[in-house]
Structure formats: structure tokens, C-alpha cells
Design goal:
By secondary structure, the protein is an alpha/beta fold. It folds into two domains: 157 residues, 3-Layer(aba) Sandwich (Cobalt-precorrin-4 Transmethylase, domain 1); 124 residues, 2-Layer Sandwich (Methyltransferase, Cobalt-precorrin-4 Transmethylase, Domain 2). It has nine helices and 15 strands. It has a seven-stranded parallel sheet with strand order 1-4-3-5-2-7-6, with helices on both faces. The chain has a five-stranded mixed sheet with strand order 9-10-13-11-12, sandwiched between helices. The chain has a three-stranded mixed sheet with strand order 8-15-14. Helix 4 crosses helix 5. The longest helix is centred in the first third of the chain and has 13 residues.
Length: 302
């Protein structure tokens, strides 16, 4: 039977992980941690390796909303959920379960290496001087009797997923066909002055922009500030695509312009793609040309 509970303060320490269904290993490195990108969440968009990692995991940790996306895959596992801004505690707990010799899955939506948990796990391991060994998912590591390099903490793999801007772009057409930059408008970890500097630089360099975390209840005005920065560089007629809940239940999308961007319709589950100087809209598709037709003829004539 599945065991589910919320992340507790003690999970960030060693005691809970050591005492639950096992003891710390004796330095042989049997623990293995898979950091999984779920993509949009629908089964058909998840990598086979991600599905396998969830199937074989003993302990699964994640933000509750993301755990709900894969509820049917959790079976009788130990499932530990937590809310927003508990990322450090969540990663600490996953690391402790790995050190305790468990088969652990830590999940993120989209791709775990793009605004996800992969970087934070490695940050913590570096700061704590935990030596983790790259693992390709082969069955040997983590099995009873397996031995890792001397001093090894646990085996680690990062499993990619479809990023939110990939999912959004595919629904809009082909807006990312040329160089692009991804920028998060969340100033929780990055100062707003740094964010605006990056926005302005990307806009001046004519990058297509994929904007994450565009508007929340606690910071409803930052998207409008960002729009004004972009309008200082780009035409008001620049195509802009908005996709909410890409490839999930409740999916919604709209193509507008930078001058008429419907700011009030944007939330934290939205991704905004701002075109470059050559992006156009044709029959409802948003397209950024790569430049093929500038160089090659489709008629066979020079």
C-alpha cells in the first residue's frame, strides 16, 4: 500500500531517511537517485527512462501538484510531497534517502535541468562534499552487493523531459526555429535588476524570448514592466504567443502582439514566447524563419 506524507522538517536531516525501512549503507554506494523531468505530465510525452525510474523507485519526492500528474504510477511507494518554496528541504531529503541506500526519484515538471531540481541537488552535494557518481540507468548500480568508488555517496542520473517552452512552441507552430533565450520573471532568487538587464540584452540582440513565471498574485505588475522594456527595443506588432497548461488538461493558447499582450490573462502556469524581428503569423501559426528560403530556392531555379 502506498505511503504518502508531507515533507517534514526532519526530512532535511538524516534521521528520517536512516530509520525508514533500512539503514545507511557501509560506503559501498548502493543508493541511487534519479532526478526526473516529467515533461508536461501526460504519459505519452514522458521519456521511457523516466517511466522506468518511477516504476523502480522505492521513494518518490516532489511538489504535490507534480506528484498528482503521475499519481497512477506511484503504487505502493513511499511518497513525500511538499509545497512551493520547499525546494531545498525536498532536495536534502532526496539526498539523504540516496545516502541511506534507497532507490529514489525526485521529480520536476518539464525538464529537471531547466529551472528544476537537478542543479540544486548538485549544488547541495558540492557544498556538503558528497561524492556522487554518474549513472546511466544500467541495472548494476544500486543492486545488493554493488560497490561504488571509495568515498562515493550514491549514484545519480538526470533524466530529461520536454521543457515548457518546447511544449508551448509546438502548440504555437515553430517560433523557436532561430536563436532564442529563456528568461524567468521570478525575482524570488534573482534580483529584478538582473532580470531586466537580461531581458534588455536579449531583446537588443534580437533573440526570440521564452518567458517563464510571467505573472503571479504576489507580483502582478512585473510582466507589464517587462513588456515596456521590450517595447523600448521591439515593434509593438511583434508576434507573441501565450500558452497556459501546455499539453495538460485545461490547455489554452493565444497569439497576440507585444503591443496588445493580454497581461491579465497570464498566470504562473503560462509560458510566453516573444518573436524576433522576423517572426510572423500565418494561418494561425507563429513562425520564426531560420533563413533557408533566403539561401535556397524551392523552385529549383537560381
Amino acid at each position: 500500500m502506498r505511503s504518502e506524507r508531507s515533507l517534514e522538517c526532519g526530512d532535511a536531516g538524516v534521521a528520517c531517511a536512516q530509520k525508514e525501512k533500512g539503514e545507511l549503507h557501509s560506503g559501498g554506494c548502493p543508493g541511487r537517485l534519479s532526478i526526473i523531468g516529467l515533461g508536461p505530465g501526460h504519459r505519452s510525452y514522458m521519456a521511457a527512462e523516466a517511466l522506468e525510474a518511477l516504476e523502480t523507485a522505492e521513494v518518490v519526492l516532489g511538489y504535490k501538484t507534480y506528484l498528482d500528474l503521475v499519481e497512477d504510477l506511484l503504487g505502493d511507494k513511499t511518497v513525500i510531497s511538499s509545497g512551493m518554496r520547499k525546494e531545498v528541504e525536498r532536495c536534502q531529503a532526496a539526498i539523504e534517502y540516496g545516502l541511506a541506500g534507497r532507490k529514489v526519484a525526485l521529480i520536476s515538471s518539464g525538464d529537471a535541468g531547466i529551472y528544476g531540481m537537478a542543479g540544486l541537488v548538485l549544488d547541495i552535494c558540492r557544498q556538503r562534499q558528497i561524492d556522487v557518481v554518474e549513472w546511466d540507468g544500467a541495472p548494476g548500480p544500486g543492486q545488493p552487493g554493488s560497490v561504488g568508488p571509495e568515498g562515493c555517496g550514491f549514484f545519480l542520473r538526470v533524466i530529461p523531459g520536454i521543457a515548457a517552452f518546447n511544449a508551448a512552441a509546438s502548440l504555437l507552430g515553430a517560433p523557436l526555429m532561430h536563436d532564442f533565450a529563456a528568461v524567468s520573471l521570478s525575482d524570488h532568487l534573482t534580483p529584478w535588476e538582473v532580470i531586466t538587464k537580461r531581458l534588455r540584452a536579449a531583446a537588443e540582440a534580437d533573440f526570440v524570448l521564452a518567458i517563464y513565471n510571467p505573472r503571479s498574485k504576489s507580483r502582478p505588475d512585473l510582466l507589464e514592466e517587462a513588456r515596456q522594456i521590450l517595447l523600448g527595443v521591439r515593434s509593438a506588432q511583434t508576434p507573441v504567443g501565450i500558452v497556459r497548461k501546455a499539453m495538460r488538461e485545461g490547455q489554452w493558447k493565444r497569439i497576440s502582439t507585444l503591443g496588445e499582450l493580454p497581461v491579465s490573462e497570464v498566470d504562473m502556469q503560462s509560458v510566453i514566447i516573444v518573436g524576433n524581428s522576423r517572426t510572423y503569423v500565418w494561418k494561425g501559426w507563429m513562425v520564426t524563419p531560420r533563413g533557408y528560403l533566403d539561401k535556397y530556392s524551392i523552385t529549383g531555379k537560381e
